[in-house]
Design brief:
- By secondary structure, this protein is mainly alpha-helical.
- It is built from five helices and two strands; from the N terminus they run ααββααα.
- Strands 1-2 form a two-stranded antiparallel ribbon.
- It starts with 17 loop residues before the first helix and ends in a 7-residue tail after the last helix.
Length: about 140
């Protein structure tokens, strides 16, 4: 069977959404108090890593002539699209002080990016709350 350049997947394209399943498990772990803080911290870390490096979002790297940036598909909020220079541009935006505002505004540029950003923030807060005992009111 010949592959015509398209990436084949056993899961039919759902392999990139494993972090959403981990997010649902994280919510279930918070609802079920028997899960314990270790499970919540581990799931929070997994969801945060998925949001940063694998969630399907648009690139958003600065492009000459486009106000909204690159519109190619990217993997995660911190990485750019298939263009190598865009990957470095997105990471450089976090380091260069003048470009942090542009990076942060790109986090809420469209619906997918907003959902992934809120999931990442929520999982970070979830991990912190589970890490510090006594923060959650029982």
């Amino acid at each position: 069977m010949a592959n015509s350049g398209a990436r084949s997947s056993n899961l039919g394209g759902l392999g990139q959404w494993w972090g959403a399943l981990a997010g649902a498990l994280l919510i279930a772990a918070w609802v079920n108090k028997a899960a314990g803080p270790t499970v919540v911290i581990a799931l929070s870390a997994v969801v945060l890593l998925w949001c940063a490096f694998q969630a399907p979002v648009t690139c958003g790297a600065p492009v000459r002539g486009r106000e909204d940036g690159c519109r190619n598909n990217a993997s995660g909020l911190l990485l750019g699209c298939h263009i190598r220079q865009h990957r470095w541009q997105k990471l450089k935006m976090l380091v260069v002080r003048r470009q942090i505002r542009a990076f942060c505004s790109g986090l809420f540029s469209d619906g997918k990016a907003t959902i992934v950003t809120l999931a990442g923030i929520g999982s970070f807060v979830s991990g912190l709350v589970a890490l510090v005992p006594g923060v959650v009111i029982h």
